[in-house]
């Protein structure tokens, strides 16, 4: 049986293998790839937001190619129905001519699910993912069907086009471990994109990691410890996003209507544990929490009317929360 240190070494090695395979196709986007892989090893789902053409769909497709997991893609459109995602009961006939209902599985029954342009479907259809994302199962016709593990939903959305889109309900957003912004490529990255896509460059991605190994790595991540004061640091950070909290920052009190949910601090700590594991550490540090906070909190902080009207960036609020919480802990203020 492998020791904890050996398990972390293997996790680091497998993480790098998958990252290298994705790098054969995808140019740049190192932080995005890292965040998605952290979500995978933490056992959560990821929402990718960026303008068209930045490689969001390509990233998910390439990632699926580097993992020996079942993959499906759902193209979200306004006319998509919940049954188109989860599946439906259909009438079948056996060899004796007897008819019966049989459940026809939908595309959600995969291990990596790409929910492309998720904000183009109606909230009713978006909500069809809720049970699958949280419980790892689908209920249809009174029967519950379990999804194969590991299971991860990687959703994309375009923040620019508002026509024909439906903002994700708060309950839906809260199911995503991370929300990751996909930035525009830099000059050298654009040149590399052109070299790879307009020339003879051909690269094939090979599966380098299977589901059994991923589940083992998730257990290794859970074994990473967070000291009480580090865990409390994450809790304080979460409470700082609530305008009625004693830890609330000035911007939060002014612009925020409702702060992050308890799932936010769970995401924060799980992501931090993966970062610690990748650094071959058995204990979470303050820096692990700080680095994970933007992706874990940005989609869970809800602006009030004034904040939305003024166009206040949520990332700016989260940044202040991180800074003020760090200052508070370092100064030993508000210790209970």
In short:
This protein has 336 residues and is of the alpha/beta class. 48% of the residues lie in helices and 17% in strands.
Radius of gyration: 21 Å
Task: Compute the number of strand runs.
Answer: 13
The CATH C-level class name of the largest domain: Alpha Beta
CATH architecture annotation name of the largest domain: 3-Layer(aba) Sandwich
Corresponding CATH superfamily of the largest domain: P-loop containing nucleotide triphosphate hydrolases
Order of helices and strands: HHEHEEHEEEHHEEEHEHEHHHEHHEHH
Percentage of residues in helical conformation: 40-55%
Structural class: alpha/beta
Q: What profile does the largest beta sheet have?
A: 5 strands, parallel
Please report the number of helical segments.
15
> Which ranges are low-confidence, i.e. pLDDT below 50, for 5 or more consecutive residues?
none
Strand content: 15-25%
Average pLDDT works out at: 87
> Within the CATH hierarchy, at the fold level, what is the topology of the largest domain?
Rossmann fold
